[in-house]
Design goal:
The protein has a 6-stranded parallel beta sheet, sandwiched between helices. A two-stranded parallel ribbon has the order 6-9. The chain has a single domain, classed as NAD(P)-binding Rossmann-like Domain (Rossmann fold, 3-Layer(aba) Sandwich). Helix 8 packs across helix 11 and helix 9 runs antiparallel to helix 10. Helix 5 links the parallel strand 4 and strand 5. The mean pLDDT is 95. It is built from 11 helices and 12 strands. The N and C termini lie far apart (40 Å). The chain has 325 residues and is of the alpha/beta class. Bound molecules: NADP nicotinamide-adenine-dinucleotide phosphate. The site of NADP nicotinamide-adenine-dinucleotide phosphate has 27 residues, from helix 1 and strand 4.
Length: 325
Amino acid sequence: MNILIFGKDGQLGKALQARFEASANWAAKSGLRLHYLGRAECDLSKPDAVSAALDQFKPNCIMNAAAYTAVDAAETNELLANAINAGAPERMAQYAAQHGATFLHYSTDYVFDGSKEGPYRETDAPNPLGAYGKSKAAGERAIEQAFLHATQGQYAILRTSWVYGEGGNFIRTMLRLAQERDELRVIADQYGVPTSAAWLAEVSMALAFDRHGALRAFPSGIYHAVPAGETSWHGLACWAVQEASQAGMQLKVDAGAILPIPASAYPLPAPRPMNSRMQTTKLLQQLEAQADVSEWGHSAVTLLRTPWNVGVTDYVHAMARQHTA
Ligand SMILES: NC(=O)c1ccc[n+]([C@@H]2O[C@H](COP(=O)([O-])OP(=O)(O)OC[C@H]3O[C@@H](n4cnc5c(N)ncnc54)[C@H](OP(=O)(O)O)[C@@H]3O)[C@@H](O)[C@H]2O)c1
């Protein structure tokens, strides 16, 4: 069975590789052939390159961890963002629908405008505020459209938020600034859920594969995929700095020196949703339904119920160990 993973050099792409490598015996026994592509091997802004990769590897399962993720730059690079975030996944979805393959794609809280009071559900109407969110929402629609009349294949669009892993992200930026500056000012009125790329890789695997390495059947559609709880950017920065100090990282600021500011005091080219919280009941129920036949599913259900700060603590402590090594 061929698994084709796009975006191997991104945070999620690296986490997926690590997750498959952790199950290398399992993957070999199940006859999984894993193909990882980065920008150098397949430029997703070029439709022919996407088609060529699909034709070459003939995947039974496509995992698309690649995306144009530069939220502010997308405002002035809308065409490119659309090609990568909507055009490329459309081709992948068309291939999956035509060839009976499984397609796992990832989307974002930024498809919402953030005006809802409570957590967003999968059925809430997207209304993206910026070009990045618009391109990701267009990608979601293109995938749904490609599967509209499909009689084979399946897809999951996992909408996630505030991702951190191996690569540039908010937590790394905060810890760097906490080493350089005496005081930090961080937005305290935008709410969401920090999500570890490793967490997302684990949940993806549990949704798509059984413990024998066979592809599972699941209802196609959008699933919200974030850990439990919520916080603000300020809450996340405070937690990360506090944990980094406890883990022995030398910082100039402590959590008390991180000042809360409103988003209005830190204008950026692309507007962000004030409320990025997403309800995960649908994914939880799906994983629970699968958990009786798989230990793997059980651990994914536990992950979904685990508060976001547990993952951040693990991540920051691992960073601190690397830092002091
Ligand atoms: N990061 C977040 O906070 C966040 C939040 C919500 C949802 N998401 C979604 O989660 C998924 C994974 O995000 P991530 O944080 O892992 O993103 P990431 O670290 O920015 O990785 C994205 C990857 O896409 C690749 N890419 C960009 N343009 C490409 C092109 N033209 N051709 C081929 N590859 C290209 C990049 O390649 P290079 O390495 O060569 O640049 C990079 O490796 C994405 O769908 C994203 O929209 C992310």
